[in-house]
Amino acid sequence: MAVYVAYAFRYLYPLLLLPYYGRVLGAGGYGVVLAGMSLSNSIWLFVNFGFSTVGARDAVQARDARTRASILSDHLTARLVLSLPGLIVGLIAIHFSLVFLHRPAVGCVVVFLGLLAAFNLGWYFTSTGRARTSVLIEVAGFSTSLALIFGFVHRPSDLAYVFPLLLISCATQLIIAYWLVRKEFSHLFSRLKDAINLIRKSTTIFIYGGTSVLLIGASTYILSMLARESEVSAFGVAERLIAAGLSLMAPAAQILVPRVTHLVVTDPSRANRLTRQIFAWFFAGAVCATLLTLTFADWFIPLVFGHGFQQTAGVLKLMVFVFPVSVCTQVLGMYFLIPRKLERLLARAGVVSAVVNIAVAVPLATHWGAMGMATARLVGELTMLTVLVAGMHRSNLLSELFSVEPVGVPVHEFGEG
């Protein structure tokens, strides 16, 4: 609850900024911002490469400061290694985007924003019991960006200022974070061999996160290659609202995932019971959010974003069904499979859903724009849930999760073979 109170500012931020962008920049200008954020987030997810999940798990299990120092150095070096291919991919993406083709300077800043964001240390603070420190750093960054955006962006022609200002805010957060942990580094960089080993160790989780989550993050950018800016804006606004809703699960995960991971070793039955309780709360919340959105979307979107965003309401009413489906996949993955080191099943589900998502998205988005991309997003989420449930059923993991009897620690819980 303390983390949720601290995170209130995090959710106030988009509620203030999204309508401001829409009214000041217009639907076309806001479409550029959404496409840029999509590309920036995609680069961030690529360079992060699942390191945050692996690093948090390793830091929780670290027994001394020397081990944690080694983890910090390995993660910094591994991110630097992946920054070069991330830069190359970002520049190629700018070239092929209809939105950035005539705004190459804006596109370059977007790429650097994504690269810089990948060096965030939030995973380290939360896994070492300093969740409130991580939140305070984010609040400082949000405050900085809000002040800069409100201070310098007043008309559609100020679009060129948006991403440089966000870059300044991101750099401010990183300076604060790395200053706070400067004494926890034994050496700044690790050996290249250690960084490559970390990349290999994180590959399975990246396949899971880097196929499904990365494609979700890149959906708005992909649409910018296939449709007009107005379509990008309609889908992008709906996608950001859905993402904001799903992000409500993040603060709880910071506290509960380490707890479940610990219980998996010490008391598996209690870990399963806690996972079921977590699922019940989040699924009930997702159903309520879905019903409220279906009821009020037609009234809420024009009121908040102004005229020119009427199409967003219809897109949002379709995409809102992602809520309950995504809650199921996230609980199964974060609270059951990952604590048991069963990422391989997640990887398979991520790859299949990504292939289906792309196969469906391109033709649907080409013909129906924002509604087509929203349909593809929902199909991808349903595919991932289906593959996960089928894989868990074949491995008898579903019966283990829903068992009410005390259980031992099965062999398969701590191996991927």
**How does the helix and strand content classify structurally?**
mainly alpha
Report the end-to-end length measured between terminal Cα atoms: 38 Å
| Integer tally of domains | 1
Strand content: under 5%
Percent helix: over 70%
What characterizes the major β-sheet? none
- Oligomeric state of the chains? single chain
Overall residue-averaged pLDDT value: 83
Write down the secondary-structure element order: HHHHHHHHHHHHHHHH
Note poorly predicted spans. Answer: 407-417
Tally of DSSP helical segments: 16
What does this 3D model show about the protein?
- The chain is mostly helical.
- The chain has one domain.
- The chain contains 16 helices and no strands.
- The radius of gyration is 21 Å and the shape is globular.
- The two termini are 38 Å apart.
- The C terminus is likely disordered.
